[in-house]
Structure formats: C-alpha cells, structure tokens
Amino acid sequence: MQTIGIKDLQTNPAILTKALEAKLYTMITKRSNPIGIALSFDDAILSHGLKTSLLIDGYKDGNISLGQLAKSLDISKQKAMHLLSMMGIDVVEYDFEDDLKTVEKFL
Fold it and tell me: Where are the domains of the chain?
C-alpha cells in the first residue's frame, strides 16, 4: 500500500492519479495520521460489491488464503472456488517447471 500526504496531493495531484492507474491501494494521511484510503474503480466493484472485490484482490495478491476468503464472505470453500473460477482467477497455483525439475532429479 502506498501512502500519500495531503500536502503532497495539494501540490501534485497527479501522484494519486498514477497510483490509481497502477491499481495501488493508497492511504492518504494528514500530519502522518491516516484519514482515508483511495482505490481504483473497476467493474468487479459493481458486480460483486466492494467487500467481495477487496477480498478477491487480497486472495489474488496472496495476502489471504482460500479458507480466509470463504470465511470472510461467509460461504463454503467450494462456493469461493466457483466464484474465483467464474472470474477467471486461478484457484490452485501450479508450477509445471518445478515438477519437471523434480522428475529430472528422479531420472
């Protein structure tokens, strides 16, 4: 998460625009105290709601697990997996190259 002071925003508002275009969550502070958070807008917020959208972003970034996502949304893991797959998000990370290296070690 990026942090921007209110004085920096007053002198250079483009720094917030750049952060939003980069899809970074940005904490806005006044005298080093947090006063707000800015986040970029996308269609997922409209279709799934802010809470769901933020939790899914947390899952995609590796900040929360599938179980934490399901618990936070008050749904089963199976429903969470279905939601993620409907959004085109990988549910299981699979590294084919890593498996090839393992197989090569055995050969």
Answer: 2-38, 42-107
